[in-house]
Design brief:
This protein is mainly beta and 135 residues long. The protein has two helices and eight strands, in the order βαβαββββββ.
């Protein structure tokens, strides 16, 4: 599975209920027990969050968040989140609006990624693209 934009996130962004310039965004890690579905709510998604040394429930608060609208797309980027002195296995990264628990995007690592007493960093270089309607 490739990266996924959650339907509720698209709706809430379009409705102005998520403000990318002002809201705190979090990036949580999920295990391979999660079955991606664009219609899932936050509670369903976060129920599959990893646990382990060096990882705090709820994930990392993203810094350096920016977004760019171009044509029918909105690209979200941020500084790379990382966890130090970490021991866990993750399959997915999950981006959500913290205060409202609105799911925005899922990042598929392609396979389980493990760290053992080291640093786990997700390269948040590509961001996620939300496609709007054509005029």
């Amino acid at each position: 599975m490739t990266d996924l934009a959650f339907q509720d996130g698209i709706l809430q962004l379009g409705s102005g209920n998520v403000d990318l310039a002002a809201d705190t965004l979090k990036f949580a890690l999920l295990d391979d027990g999660y079955s991606p579905d664009a219609t899932d709510a936050h509670a369903t998604i976060i129920a599959n969050e990893v646990s382990g040394t060096g990882y705090t429930a709820g994930g990392a608060t993203l810094t350096g968040v920016s977004w760019d609208e171009s044509g029918n797309y909105c690209d979200i980027t941020a500084d790379d989140p990382s966890w130090t002195s970490a021991t866990f296995t993750a399959r997915y990264g999950y981006l959500y609006a913290a205060a409202s628990s609105i799911p925005l995007a899922l990042y598929d690592f392609g396979a389980n990624q493990s760290v053992d007493a080291g640093t786990f960093t997700y390269a948040f270089s590509g961001g996620v693209a939300y496609r709007g309607r054509s005029a």
